[in-house]
Amino acid sequence: LQAAVDNGCVVVVQGANTGLTGASVPRSSEKGDSRPTVLISTKHLDTILPIDDGKKVLCLAGVGLASLQSFVNNFGDGSRQSHSTLGSTFLNPTTAAGVAFGSGGTQIRKGPSTTERALYLKVQEDSNGEPI
User: What is the pTM of this model?
Assistant: First the structure.
């Protein structure tokens, strides 16, 4: 990521590439931006870790909402619900897209569960990344 920023590239982070939010498709050339584009896929960052005795989960950026739903249904008594209540969940958009771009909701609470914390990286004016 730092190499892309250092070279003046547009960086697009891609989730499951469902097209639900349009956030995964580079569009810089359509807007007259001639910078090179680097696409970073989160597809293989698909780990789900139960924490707090399974009361919560830690999802990496590429975990799909349908995958999360299946995981929480099979953990414990099966009564837990996923982050989103979208009709499009069957397309398995990522939890990162759900939090960041609205594929499942840009609000902290969307559906029966909540997003307690999310970690982002902001590129500062000096081109250094800052976790926020």
Answer: 0.68
